[in-house]
Amino acid sequence: MLPESVLVQAQQEMLDWQGSGMSVMEMSHRGKQFMAIAEAMKNDLIELMGIPANYKVLFLQGGASAQFAMIPQNILNGKTKASYVNTGAWSTSAIKEAGKYCEVQLAASSEAEKFTTIPEFDTWNIDKDAAYLHYTSNETIHGVEFSEVPEAGDLPLVCDMSSNILSRPVDVSRYGLIYAGTQKNMGPAGVTVVIVREDLVGLAPKSVPAVFDYQQQAKADSMLNTPATYNWYLLGLVLQWLKQQGGISAIEQTNQRKAAKLYQAIDQSSLYSNPVVKVHRSKMNVPFVLADAALDKEFLSLAEKSGLGSLPGHRSVGGMRASIYNAMPEAGVDALIDFMAEFERSH
Q1: Catalytic positions, written as ranges
Q2: Which of 15, 148, 158, 317 is deepest in the core (most CB within 10 A)?
């Protein structure tokens, strides 16, 4: 979901961006108009997240899935092992892809618990000879989220923040690399943000193609190839909207309220339940199941007729899933809760 005000502004500027006579999607990425859009967008992200000066901020393509491969290609730095934590479907995908480039050492996994929890930090076994430690801060499919930043020791900490970036404050300085697809909290699909510490840039072997090399992309201001210009523009509008809401700390408070009231409705129900250990429940993705799975199709059908869409759970886990990212207004969560209560009364 995108903020309605962002969509309205994009609509108003569709044919003519600020008197230029062009739509943003028609602009040259090297033209002065688009360069101004790109610079403002980057500066707004740096400001909102408090990104230190010794980090490069890249806007790439290929989604987080491309980063699953680009990270080991760029920051192994001659080492043969990388340490990964497996807490769900996206961690699993990252591990599989990294295994093509190095030996993956599993520091911890909650697979035996069906990804309903996060292993206690004191049980992790991190290989000190690994090039980095990787984890996924929020698992969209299983609804599991880290509430604390793991300690990586001397290893660079790498995090896939695709589904909860900008939803709460983050101390960027604790990370070696943060990456995130924009399609959850930052804009439409098509841009991948990579925030990488300078000492991890320039380590890729010569065999890595230039467009996959962080150093080459940093030198070219993420324009080594033609970027997804309109998506950069929409990302910039979302960042401006977030500043208007009071920034990340303000949106975090809203997110906490939205999640708390939805989980409360589930926990107080005799029809709905959430399988995730409470302290690890996601504030972005709330999965729930009905006590009688035979009611699932009717629930989804009636929800759709009530204007509540995109509720089916992932095929691997079933049930329902409410994604309540930054742009989902509190009224949307209230509408879902009201519908769930009425459905339970009538069934």
Answers
A1: 90, 160, 184
A2: 158
